[in-house]
Design brief:
Blueprint (H helix, E strand, L loop, with lengths): L2 E5 L4 H12 L5 E4 L5 H10 L7 E4 L4 E4 L1 H11 L11 H30 L7 H21 L13 H16 L7 H12 L1 H10 L9
Parallel strand pairs: 1-2
Antiparallel strand pairs: 1-3, 3-4
Helix pairs in contact: 1-3, 1-6, 1-8, 4-5, 4-6
Length: 215
C-alpha cells in the first residue's frame, strides 16, 4: 500500500490525522510507534528528524509528510475523496486554517501543558504554568461557545480540517478542565464530534491505551 502512517492511537495529533483518513476511507497502512522503544524512536527520527508523529510516508510519490495539518492538506490534494476537508474557495480556505490553528494552539497546547505537569515529579511541578494554561483554556472555551451558538461544525454545515483538529483537542481538554457544565454550546459541539463515525472509530482504537493518560 502506498500510504504508511506512523502514529500512536493515543496521541492527539495522530488522532487528528486518522480522522481525515477515515472520513474518506483512504487506504493506508498504520505503523504504531512505541516511543519507549529506542529502536523505534531511532527509526522515526530517520524518517523525520524531529522525531515526532504523525508522519506520513507516500511510497508512490516518494514523499515524507510530517505534521497533522499538513498531512490532511496533502491527502486533500493528492488523494481526495468525497469529503473535501479544506475548501477550495480561497477565503473559506484561510478561515478553515485559522480555526485549525486555533484548536491546535489555544486548546491543544494549553491542555498538553497541564498534562505535562501531571507527568512531572512532584518537586518539579509548575502550578503557575498550570493556572496560566487553565486560564487560556477557559478563554478558548468562551470563544468556541460564541462561535458554536449557531453552527453545526466549526465552519458551518460542513465538516472540515478545523473539526479534525477540534476532536482530540476538546476530548483531552475536557479531561483536564471539563466544560460540560459551563459551556453548553461547546458540549453540544463535542457531542456531535464524538458521534461522527470517523472520530468514533478513532476513539475506539485509542481505548486500549487510555489507561496511559494521566488522570
Amino acid at each position: 500500500m502506498s500510504l504508511i502512517l506512523y502514529l500512536h492511537p493515543l496521541a492527539s495529533f495522530c488522532q487528528k490525522a486518522l480522522i481525515a483518513f477515515y472520513e474518506n476511507a483512504t487506504p493506508f497502512t498504520p505503523r504504531i510507534v512505541d516511543l519507549g522503544n529506542e529502536a523505534e524512536r531511532a527509526a522515526l527520527r530517520e524518517l523525520w528528524s524531529v522525531g515526532k508523529f504523525p508522519v506520513l510516508r507516500d511510497e508512490a510519490r516518494g514523499q515524507t509528510v510530517p505534521e497533522s495539518s499538513i498531512i490532511i492538506e496533502y491527502l486533500d490534494q493528492h488523494y481526495p475523496g468525497s469529503a473535501l476537508l479544506l475548501p477550495r474557495d480561497a477565503d473559506l480556505g484561510w478561515q478553515t486554517r485559522l480555526r485549525d490553528r486555533f484548536y491546535d494552539l489555544y486548546v491543544h497546547e494549553p491542555m498538553q501543558r497541564i498534562v505535562g505537569d501531571r507527568l512531572r515529579p512532584r518537586e518539579n511541578a509548575d502550578p503557575f504554568g498550570v493556572e496560566e494554561a487553565s486560564a487560556r483554556l477557559r478563554a478558548s472555551y468562551d470563544i468556541i461557545e460564541r462561535e458554536m451558538a449557531d453552527r453545526q461544525w466549526a465552519m458551518g454545515d460542513r465538516f472540515t480540517l478545523a473539526d479534525c483538529a477540534a476532536c482530540p483537542s476538546l476530548f483531552y481538554a475536557n479531561k483536564v478542565l471539563p466544560f460540560e457544565k459551563t459551556h453548553s454550546n461547546v458540549a453540544d459541539y463535542f457531542a456531535r464530534l464524538q458521534a461522527r463515525p470517523s472520530y468514533a472509530r478513532v476513539l475506539s482504537e485509542a481505548e486500549p491505551y487510555m489507561k496511559m493518560f494521566p488522570q
